[in-house]
Amino acid sequence: MKKIALIAFCLALGIAQAYGQSDEPGEISFTKKDGSAYQGQAVKGVPEGRGAMKTADGDEYYGEFHDGEPSGEGYYQWADGTTYSGTFADGSPNGKGKFDFADGITYKGDVRDGKPSGVGDFTYPNGNSYSGEVADGTPNGHGTLTRADGSKRTCDWIMGRPVGD
User: Fold this and answer.
1) Global pTM?
2) Which one of 18, 29, 103, 146 has the largest count of C-beta atoms within 10 Å of its C-beta?
3) What would the pLDDT profile of 89-125 be if each residue is shown by its tens digit?
C-alpha cells in the first residue's frame, strides 16, 4: 500500500500563500493544473478539520485532517479501486479499519503504516477466511484458516504460509 503523502501535496500547492495566513478556521477549495484538489476546512491555508482531497493520480480521501495530513477517521479510495475506511495517523491508515482490496480480498482489524498488521480478519474471494495475527498485509503469527467447506486449520503462520499444527 502506498503511503499517503499529503504534506508534500499541500506544500506543493502553496495553499498557505494562496489563501492567506488567518488563524481562524475557514473553508477553502482549490484545484491544481495536474488535477489534484482539496475542498474543506483549513487554518492558515492548511487542511485542518473535515475535508476532501483528490490526488493527481486519481486517489481520493474524505475525512479528518490535522496539519495538512489525513488524521482521525476517514475513507480513502485508490485509483485501482481499493478502499480503506477507518483511522488515519501520520498521513496513512493507522489504527483500526477495513480494507476492500481491488482483487476481492477484504480485511478488518489492526492497521500500521498503511498495511494490515496486528490482529485481524481476512475474507478471500474463494470463500476462505483467516482470523489471527497479521504482519505487513499477510497472515503472520498464530491464526485460523477456515476453508469454504467449513474445515479449519489453526497453527502458526510465517509470511502467509502455515508452519505447523
Assistant:
1) 0.84
2) 146
3) 989 999 999 999 999 999 999 999 999 999 999 999 9
In this structure, how many other beta carbons lie within 10 angstroms of the beta carbon of residue 67?
13
Domain locations along the chain: 1-95, 103-165
**10, pLDDT greater than 50:** no
Of 106, 131, 105, the residue nearest 118 (C-alpha): 131
Evaluate whether 153 touches 144 at the Cβ level (below 8 Å).
yes
**pLDDT of 23:** 72
**Can you tell me the distance from the alpha carbon of 103 to that of 80, in angstroms, rounded to the nearest whole number?**
10
1-95: which CATH topology?
Answer: 2.20.110
Amino acid letter, residue 101: F
